[in-house]
Every structure is written in C-alpha cells, then in structure tokens.
Amino acid sequence: EAKAKGRNTFHFYSQELDAAANERLFIENELRIALKAKQFKLHYQPQVNSQTLEVIGYEALIRWYHPEKGYIPPDKFIHIAEATGMIVELGEWVIEEACRFSMQLQTLGQAGNMSINLSARQFKDDRLISTLSDVLERTQMPPHLLHLELTESMLMGDVEAAITQLHEIKKLGVALSIDDFGTGYSSLSYLKRFPVDMLKVDRSFVQDIPEDQNDMEITAAIIAMAQKLKLQVVAEGVETQEQMEFLQKNNCFIVQGYFYSPPIKASEVHSFYQSLQHQS
Ligand code: C2E
Ligand code: MG
Ligand code: MG
Ligand code: MG
C-alpha cells in the first residue's frame, strides 16, 4: 500500500518536474526565435503626479505574444533569458525601442522620463555602458530622461563593484531608480552610498492600504527616508483612491498603478496623456 502510494507520489512529482523542465526548454528555444520574429512589444505604464495630474514619465514593460501560446508574461521568461544570457540582447532591444518611442513622444510635446528595467546580468555586463552610450547617440535621447530600474538584490552581492558601475552609468547622465524597494536586503547604510535618484515603493506594501496598519507604517517610513536622502519616490501598484490619498498625506505624489492606468500600448499613450490633461 504504502510502497505503491510512494511510487505514485514519486511518479506524480517527476511528471510535474518534467512539465516544468519542458516548459523551460520550450521557452528557452522559443526565446531565440522571438526577437528575430518580432514577437516582443513594449507596453508603457504612466507615472502620474497625483496632485497636478501631470504624466512625469512611463515605465516600459516587455510583452511577449507567442504565435501559438499567446501572451507569455515577463515573470515566466525574464529569468530564463537571464540564465541563458539572452537577456543582454533582449535588454538592448528594450532600451533602444523605449528610447525611440520616448523621442516620438517628445516630438508630440511630451517630455517625460522613460524608465527601463535592467536585469542583474545586464547590469553586470561589461558592454552595458557602451550599449547605453550607443543607444543614446543613435536615438538622440536626452540622457537625463532615461531612468534605469535596478533591484536591491542586484546591488548587494559585490557592493563595491555595483557602486562603480552605478557611477559609470551616472557619468552618462542617465538616472537610476531602485525598483521594488523594501523587498530586498539592501542595508540602509549602503543606500546613501548608491548614487541613485529614485526609490519605487514595492506594490506589496501599497496593495493592502488601508487595511494593513504595518504596511502603512512601512510605506510612510520609506517615503520619509527617501525625502531625507533627497531621493524622488514613486509608489507602485496604486489601485484605489484611498491608497492615492494615503500616499498624498504622506508626501508621495508620484504614483504608478491601475488607479490611473495599466501598462498600455504605444498607440494608446498619447490619448491617455491628453485625457489626463483635460482633467487637470
Ligand atoms: P516591475 O518592474 O516591478 O513592474 C511592475 C509590475 O506590476 C508590472 O508587471 C505591471 O504590469 C504591474 N502593475 C503595475 N501597476 C499595477 C497595479 O496597480 N496592480 C497590479 N496588480 N499590478 C500592477 P509585468 O508587466 O507583468 O512585469 C513584471 C516584472 O517583469 C517587472 O516588475 C519587471 O521586474 C520584469 N520586467 C518587465 N519588463 C522587463 C524588461 O523589459 N526587462 C527586464 N529585465 N525585466 C522586465
Ligand atoms: Mg520596474
Ligand atoms: Mg516594481
Ligand atoms: Mg519586480
């Protein structure tokens, strides 16, 4: 009985592992094709000043539409692209595409920031600085409008190397944000040594406001600390009026989240901008 059950359990787990391994292999193979086949797109999520209803910028978020599997979310493939090294090429495409789009917006009179997510491998790659300066040159993107988002964990391994790389990026005139702030392990003593411009309060702290008292305290503390360190602060994942008002009361005016807009297609960005201007 027990033996049979044990065998079945093993069988069950190994099937699950096979399925996971197969999916991984599938994604790995398809990723190689996807760039050439133009299966990737960028969507853009507005970052809005809730006081003035100005759009201060957008975050570019990658979208993969596979011809057979349909939409594959970034959480399903970024880590695989990272593990295989494909992320460097993919990331380069993201930077260039987002800068080109930002230049189009600037032509329409919309001179906001463009935030791009970097992965650990991209950040550590020797080619990052030359890639960035090449793209800035090719697209004529004003460097200060380009914001690179990094996570705490990317900075914490070899802290000295990270600080050197951050300074190299800053020399290009590009701005830096710490994404998902509060979820990683960065020590506050390092934070002031990182030449960053902005903190993004992680969505996990925002989502249970106003029900979760602890999350409210943490959010307020992060905002206060950012201000003391003279860093800009953006709240991620703001979905409700109450959350927006709580953030306002605590001096965080830049918000990103479904309350104003989900990530949208490039073709929808200008009309979103105009609709917000009509409200303000
Ligand atoms: P992230 O950089 O923290 O991006 C925010 C995520 O939260 C996005 O998920 C966005 O669609 C989602 N989001 C925004 N507002 C709300 C809200 O109000 N409620 C909820 N429930 N969700 C909201 P997405 O687009 O699936 O991206 C997931 C993660 O994948 C990103 O997290 C980022 O770490 C990574 N990623 C996305 N695009 C890229 C890229 O081009 N390069 C790299 N390296 N990573 C990327
Ligand atoms: Mg981000
Ligand atoms: Mg985030
Ligand atoms: Mg994230």
Automatic annotation (TrEMBL):
| Residues covered by the EAL domain | 24-277
Protein origin, superkingdom: Bacteria
User: Under the cellular component aspect of Gene Ontology, which terms does the record hold?
Assistant: membrane
Keyword ATP-binding annotated: no
**GO biological process: what's one of them?**
signal transduction
Alphabetically list the UniProt keywords.
c-di-GMP, Membrane, Transmembrane, Transmembrane helix
Q: Which GO terms describe its molecular function?
A: cyclic-guanylate-specific phosphodiesterase activity
Is-annotated flag, keyword Transmembrane helix? yes
Q: What is this protein called?
A: cyclic-guanylate-specific phosphodiesterase
Query: What species does this protein belong to?
Result: Pseudoalteromonas amylolytica
